[in-house]
């Protein structure tokens, strides 16, 4: 069993997701207020996005030998809503095991140093292993379901994490808050960063579920994935 997966993003009309030059005053609200209306047991982000929320200290975990056990760690803690991060090499540093009201789950590969696992256990941050060298995102979702009873997960970006779940065929719904702005920055991250260039992969088609005007001139569009 795996959770139902809803990817939620705020994007410009040209699909870009960094808001640095968009010029809106309270730029967090467009994402957060719509996200709060999606019923989910967890949100999940990529390492780059999570580093905007995690601790700012720089700790050196060295290259300690990886001969310690590689067993999933489910922290004993009261929260029932979770914030998961795809962090294959263990780069997020934590002062606490919470982001707002959500308990942190680190999604790792087995290559992380033992000292990093000690850091997570010391902070009572949960962690799961999603593969030896590379992540198996199917396995990751199954573990989130089995170990944390996560039935619906909201994937909140950025573009690389969205792109990897898209490419793996694991997204059930896409929720887009379309901002009335053309960004135009060549090379800036887009909603789905799945693959360089054109190969054999086919684009993912969506079916419209609903759309509504939100805020001033924004549109909130919800799609289901056509399989
Ligand atoms: N507009 C919006 O709604 C929105 C939402 C969220 C974020 N953002 C913005 O998006 C930007 C970040 O996006 P991003 O695409 O650069 O980064 P990201 O998706 O947040 O994180 C990418 C990193 O996550 C890890 N990762 C993701 N998928 C993986 C996989 N399948 N296997 C192994 N590792 C994987 C890798 O970490 P390692 O590099 O450690 O290997 C990768 O470099 C930020 O500027 C943020 O503010 C915008």
From TrEMBL:
Residues 3-216 form the Bacterial bifunctional deaminase-reductase C-terminal domain. It comes from the Bacteria. Pathway: Cofactor biosynthesis; riboflavin biosynthesis. Keywords: NADP, Oxidoreductase. InterPro entries: DHFR-like_dom_sf, RibDG_C, Riboflavin_Biosynth_HTPR. This is RibD family protein.
């Amino acid at each position: 069993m795996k959770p139902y997966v809803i990817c939620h993003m705020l994007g410009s009309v040209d699909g870009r997701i960094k808001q640095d030059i968009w010029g809106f005053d309270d730029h967090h609200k467009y994402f957060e207020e719509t996200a709060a209306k999606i019923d989910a047991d967890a949100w999940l982000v990529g390492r780059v996005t999570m580093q905007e929320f995690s601790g700012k200290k720089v700790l050196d975990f060295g290259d300690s030998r990886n001969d310690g056990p590689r067993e999933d760690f489910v922290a004993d803690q009261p929260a029932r809503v979770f914030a998961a991060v795809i962090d294959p090499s263990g780069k997020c540093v934590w002062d606490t095991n919470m982001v707002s009201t959500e308990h942190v789950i680190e999604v790792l590969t087995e290559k992380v140093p033992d000292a990093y696992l000690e850091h997570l256990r010391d902070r009572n941050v949960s962690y799961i292993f999603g593969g030896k060298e590379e992540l198996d995102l199917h396995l990751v979702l199954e573990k989130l379901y089995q170990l944390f009873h996560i039935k619906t997960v909201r994937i909140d970006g950025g573009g690389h994490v969205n792109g990897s779940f898209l490419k793996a065929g694991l997204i059930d719904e896409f929720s887009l808050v379309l901002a009335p702005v053309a960004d135009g920055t060549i090379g800036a991250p887009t909603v789905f960063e799945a693959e360089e260039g054109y190969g054999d992969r086919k684009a993912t088609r969506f079916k419209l579920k609903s759309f509504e005007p939100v805020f001033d001139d924004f549109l909130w569009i919800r799609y289901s994935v056509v399989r």
